[in-house]
Amino acid sequence: MTAAPGRRITIVVPVLNEAAGIAASLEALAPLRARGHEVIVVDGGSDDGTPELARSRADRVLAAPCGRARQMNVGAAAASGAALVFLHADVRLPQDADRMVLEALAALPWGRFNVRLDSPRALLVLVGAMMNLRSRLSGIATGDQALFVRRELFERLGGYAEIPLMEDVELSSRLRRAGRPACLNARVLASARRWEARGALRTIVLMWRLRLAYFLGADPARLAERYR
User: Fold this and answer.
1) Closest Cα partner for 219 from 175, 178, 165, 169?
2) Above 60 in pLDDT, residue 1?
3) Would you say residue 127 has pLDDT above 60?
4) Domain 5-227 carries which CATH code?
5) CA-closest candidate to residue 52, choices 22, 72, 32
6) How far is CA 177 from CA 102, 153, 172, 173, in A?
7) Three-class SS of residue 84?
8) Residue 43 near residue 51 (C-beta atoms within 8 A)
9) Is the backbone of residue 43 left (phi > 0), alpha (psi -120 to 50) or beta?
10) From CA 93, how far away is CA 119, in angstroms rounded?
11) Is the pTM above the cut of 0.85?
């Protein structure tokens, strides 16, 4: 059954050199496309064949200057759905995410999912739980939580601020003024590769320091250099 125009969701996936996993990521979205929803991939200059792998598995594959915020804005501008979901390439949505998003947006203007990291390590299970608790208490969504929003509100607010880091935190802060978020208990599954590669404790400390510095007014460009 094809989604009616007013109930169509556009899923925007920003990518950069995701050839190793982009096929599986997009194939996981095939049931949503079969139900009439739209998947737009926005490439930031990959040199590993990511766009070619994505082309047959998405409705559109676009190019944009590198930068997650810029890429998501380009995807949103091309969207046909009344609702937008911003999805990292290494995050998997629940099977019936479209129903959950549409039901949530019927009551509230924006929202996010809970997250679970794809690692059995106790520390990373705790990290996911703390991310969800922090988000619920603060009303701030991170990129791993598949932020979703009514398209008209996103456009009215001017989309993502095109900053190199903390774009999700910045947008969440503006969205909160339009209304509280729908905090869905259903979990998206996010890759733990960043945490595993850098070390879980080291990454926790780094992210808290970066977030604190951002709230104290630090330049996002300088924070992005520290994040790398």
Assistant:
1) 165
2) no
3) yes
4) 3.90.550.10
5) 22
6) 21, 11, 9, 7
7) strand
8) yes
9) beta
10) 16
11) yes
